User: What shape does this take?
Amino acid sequence: MAESTDRGSGWSLQASPVPDGVRLELALADLGGAPVTAAIVLDRAEARAFARALLAAAGDAAERTFPKPGA
Assistant: This one.
């Protein structure tokens, strides 16, 4: 399970194997004043595509946050 390192944000992400792929659960401690959990089940191909998209988004965010020196 992954959890936010910032104690104030209150989220967790859990991946669990299921017979046809993986179940992802994103839990938010406070969304509009109430806790919310979103769960999706992905087959192996969908899970790989989702992981690639998350990695691409993280890379893009890192580039925007830490621009190259002199740029």
About this structure: The chain has one helix and four strands. The two ends are 37 Å apart (CA to CA). Residues 52 and 58 are 10 Å apart (CA to CA).
